[in-house]
Amino acid sequence: MNTKKTVTINGKQVEFGQERNLLEVIRKAGIDIPTFCYHSELSIYGACRLCLVHVEGRGVMAACSTVPAEGMVIQTDTEEIRNMRKISIELLLANHSVECPTCPRSSNCALQNIAHRLGVNTVRFKKLQDYQSVDRSSPSLERDPNKCVLCGDCVRVCREIQGIGAIDFAHRGSHAKVVPAFDSSLGQVECVNCGQCAAVCPTGAIVPKQEQNRVWDALYDKSKTVVVQIAPAVRVALGEYFGATNGANVAGKLVAALKLMGFQHVYDTSFSADMTIFEEATELINRITTGGRLPMFTSCCPAWVKYVEIYYPELIGNLSSCRSPQAMFGSVAKDILPEQLGVKREDMTVVSIMPCTAKKFEAQLPKYRTDGQPEVDVVVTTGEIRQMIDSCGIKLDELEPEAFDMPMGFATGGGVIFGASGGVMEAALRFAAEKLSGKPLASVDFKQVRGMDSLKEAELEIGGKELRVAVVHGLANAKKLITDLLAGKVQYDFVEVMACPGGCISGGGQPLGVTNKIREIRQKGLYAADKTHQVQKPQDNYLVTRCYEEHLGGCPGSPKAHHMLHTIYQNRSQLFDAKIPVMRGTTAQRLPITVTICTKQETCPGQLLLGMIASYVKQKGYTDRIDLDAAFSSRDAEDGTICVTVGDQIVERTKFTNATNTMEQLQNQAAFKTITAAIDSGYKTVTADAQMT
Amino acid sequence: MQETIEKTKAMVKHLGAVNVILKKNNNDPSRLIPILQEVQEVYKYLSKDVISYVATSLDIPVAHVYGVATFYAHFSLSPKGKHIVRLCDGTACHVKKSHDLLDCVCKKLALTEEKKTTDDLMFTLEQVSCLGACGLAPVIVIDDIVHGQATPAQVEELLDGIIAREKSEAQAAQ
Questions:
Q1: pTM (2 decimals)?
Q2: Could you give the strand order of the β-sheet that contains B83-88, starting from the edge strand earlier in sequence?
Q3: Contacts of A661 in chain B (CB under 8 A)
Q4: Is the ipTM of this structure higher than 0.90?
């Protein structure tokens, strides 16, 4: 006897099982009803009203929020439903900023596609909404509220997958809009630039910042030598745009295309990924053998790094101090390539092709500038490079693959799998296992850390040492892990975090329409690429080794390597707490100083400390170049923990245990001297900067 | 330095009151609306600082709290006057010429369609859709006291009374 439950869809019997709603049952039956606000990985919202179906005996209802029941008789297309869908689209189009030909999402826009599919060929309604200015404040993303259809996909992905909630609905009725807190701009709030909002946005309301023109400018400038690095994840996704099978590795074809477009030298970010492993695994081994701070977190993902800087500044010390592979590439390329290529440093432009929008943010950080010039000049996403290739009329699929240029184009499989969640971990384990045991590794595969599980854990015995590792992707998963870690429920030595689900392969700059199935296919593409490389272990990258010998002080961890390949982080935690200005300088270049005061303790010594800093600044005559703020936090911290930041620098959380400390006692603490020293040097820097400009 | 300490002390005290409200509500994010209501009761409006502070304390996104605060007409994001004048413009009151009362209040307090609070932060005018006292139309509520079948002359008298009282209190304080 057949125990399977069935529904009738358009007169046809369809079986269903664990589907969470009618929409999934209907789509499984091969009927693709249009939706804006439905994503299988997000909560059900039921706002767009496009997935309407007629259920016999119940009337018209939204399929996404209806649970299938045995014997339901469903019509997915009636005159009434068709008209309702068309009217919804017509109303959306009436207020939509219809600049389709010039929109970055043109031909890849759900609103455009659905309007076309449903045969909406006229819009009878007038535009009612006033023009809202486009938010270009973020270095990574552009937000055009005039194109928003209020489906809330971005709101839910940010809150549910990333655990952040940088944007949300505000206001009501016809005034409703999706905005950051206080209608401020994206660049000012807790956005970590991952771009997952842009990846789920059905229209062009949120798109990666388009920077193709900056690359064209460099390519057409005869005085510039343009070199480019390609991130691992780009090669297994770009092909989707050009009819390649999903997950196919098109690195060689991309190299050929870039050469045709005028890029002089094409390199592989996997090279600097190998270098990252040299540094990061060495750092891990050092931390383990010398009793350093554990667990160590990976620092390859700039969205994750910013997340820690905002939400867990107390864990900044747990982040590996290694730069990301992109930043390492920029630093090394600008240092060694000018001599090798016979060009001046200032005449070399470094372009990055990244699957990621956060890399745009990373590249523009002041800490990655030398003499005022960025180390990576422009970052374009996979989507942007596709547009550039198209604009040249290059048929990527028909090109003969070409090889990367040497030396920075040579990579091991370990550097290539960086693009998949678990890849950095696996590459680091390949390195650490050999270094710690002193024996060659029998198998280079660490399959425990691969795949799409939200948390991947492994306990490994390496060189007689027990190593507990964990891999998470999606920042909401990272938050869960950190919460457990801080509560002492779990213990790890090494944790890999990637902000985007599945890792960089589904970054905010990748081809759209990603599902878990596509993520798995792209991941498999990278693991297949791993096997086709001549070497798998990062430590076997002889060109990285040579680079260390010739340019980086001989070995990982050397002072030169530390200078070029490591970085410092910034405490961004007070960004969103209550803040009051205490002093304001008058000149253009100023040094920001922030003192966080705990509001849970009425006599927090931070108040006194703030006063002391203020009088120190006055006494030294620094007032014209200093901004002093008091920030207030209710965060549960150890009693009397004050956080002082001077410029980019965190002057370690200063612990004053006794609330009744006198000024003398405070002054005698070493911490106060650190603070004043930081102020002195910060003041010197801004003064020097001011004189330079 | 003394000034700095005074400034921060005031802020800590200011936020301390929010702490009490948060604690009373067990720092429960699902009690966000009652928390905001109580906070608004203390400060008359929801400032940026307070919204950020409530959000970080409850470990929920600031944008979410902002969304709730802007959704409900009850919450105000700009400072309100000491005295709140709520004028009903529901159907019954409208028919009974609530507009005359509106004109009277606006003229008396130099308020407009856009400007709802007096410069001295003494009065705020709120127009509401219905106060549920249609039998008494037109209705005006001044500082929670309901005045039914109000006339412009009566409203002017009431406002004059408040202004005079405030003046004498200010003089007494000096």
A1: 0.87
A2: B123-128, B83-88, B140-142, B145-147
A3: none
A4: no
